[in-house]
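Lab manual, section 2.4: Encoding a predicted structure.

Procedure: take the sequence of the chain (345 residues), apply the prediction step described in section 2.3, and record the output as structure tokens. A sample record is shown.
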Amino acid sequence: MQYAFFTGATCSLLLLASVRIGLSRHGGAPWIQVLIAGAFLYLLRPLLDVQQPAVDLLIDIPTMLCPAAFWLFAHHLCSESPQFPRWGWGLIAVDFLLGLAAQFELHPLLYPIEQPFKLALIGLGLLTLLEQLQSDLVAERRQLRIALLIAIGGYMVIVVCAEFLFSYYPVPRGIPAVHSLMTWILTFAACMWLLALSPSALEESLPQRMAEPDPAPSEAPEKDPAPLDASQQQLLYKLQQHMEQGGYRHTGLTIRELAEQLDAREHVLRALINRHLGYRNFNEYLNRYRVDEASRRLADPEESHLPVLTIALDIGYRSLSPFNAAFKRHHNLTPTEYRRQQLPA
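Recorded output:
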């Protein structure tokens, strides 16, 4: 009875969240909807008396896709790369095929083999959320990262481990009711935050590539940043002076270290760079200065003898790989190709 009550309440909240996300301007985030559908059917399934195997499989498919959807959503939310890695699709395909094979009970070892794949997908999603958390300048997205890490990711790990354990041992009495109660609390808190306390958190967090395209982007007026008070103007001046004097060349520079160098509060500096200068990631802000200097030096005949790696290390990169990636995003050319173009033999 308790399981049915809290499951019904949780499913109602999940439906409400799904409709709210679907009506938002970022309704094209399909992986959130897959996560919600998977959680909805996972909770509802014990209450359904399904006799047909085909229907049972259709109910289980969204739940099987939850770990993959979690990783995909984390990638679209946080990764600087617009393309999901091809090897990731391969891992997801293997996990899905293993899930189907285990569902049809083709071999008793398929189920224990499938569980590490699910944990791997969830772990990759958690790792994606953790990457560049410190350098993320969007306050709403930082909060959403932490919430996903603690709540959704942690919950999914517990569920996968518990399912594996209880597939070999009897489920203790009261565990389903406790599970349904905890799920309701988690869902209620998420809905309160996303629908009431911070209704724009998800929309502000998602990158522009997930937004619906503007029919006339060239004609859309740019949103002016809020006016700065005297202390913010002073901090902005100090920041610009510090960066123009080469402050970006410090290897491994973080926004916390930069705030200490400027004798400023970290959250104030984050908001200034994000809302006034328009950067969503601190590394993106640093790359602007670093790539500009690298472009000048690569086009300078007097420095043509310097290896690309030397220039990369001089301007603050730890290795050549991140420099090449940042440079190519800016110029659509590798540093070597750019130098050849600027300094033809």
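Check your result against the sample. Residues 209-222 have pLDDT under 50 and may be disordered.
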